[in-house]
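Many introductory courses stop at the sequence. We go one step further.
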Amino acid sequence: MIRNLLLTALRNLKKSKFFSILNISGLAIGMAVFLLIAQYVSFERSFENFVPYKNDIYRVKLEMYRSNELLQASAENYPGVALAMKNEIPEVETFARLYNMGYKNNVIITYEDAKPQPVAIKHRGFLYADSALLPMMGYKMVKGNAASALAEPKSVVLSEKYAKLYFGNEDPMGKVLHLQDDDFNNELATVTGVFKDLPANTHLRFDILFSYKTLYGRGDWAPSRYNESWRRKDMYTFVKLKSGTDPKAVEAKLPALVDKCEPQLKGTPRRDVLVLQP
């Protein structure tokens, strides 16, 4: 029975070669396109799946309105937002701020003790980061402790790739890197950790992190500017909510927080709105 069916099919294929080739080619192309789309969708849906507490972590987005008209929506926020949320909203377990200078500034980081000559690299994937970032996001450490690597001022962690570029086969721990940028910042930091190169399925890409507290050494004004200010929106803010927390309940508390921290906006057409992004 099956043999007869196969013979009949082959005869029909030979009789109509053009249409047979057309149909088979169309089927093959359709299957190939389907598999490519399925692979693409699977990859897109896998973003941040490696983060252990991803369902509790949110980026705090800033929306700026004037007379109820949206003027600007930004992924960056004020430096003081994270600390205010931690102090005023019990559901916020911890936070991590990121100061993105690599894409806004020419940042050169140099290992000056390299032989036979210093190794200097211009970085775009460079950030200042709060100490909570590494354990919050579950980044894997090759050297150093995720919970403490960025706890102190003038500490730096870098990826395996850049540890190799700077130090070759040397142990990077304890080595000193020198940062210089267009704003005349001149900072030394000691290597306290090396993390595994980040996977492709993450929106948050970086190669090297200086501790956020390093910023506080820029002057007497710096701790207030980088820790409490609601003036310049130049920080990415991530918060981890306590397990089981309804994010909508937290969002409902944010307007009162904004009113408390930005009293100068009361009675004006302008208002800021904080939004939690999963």
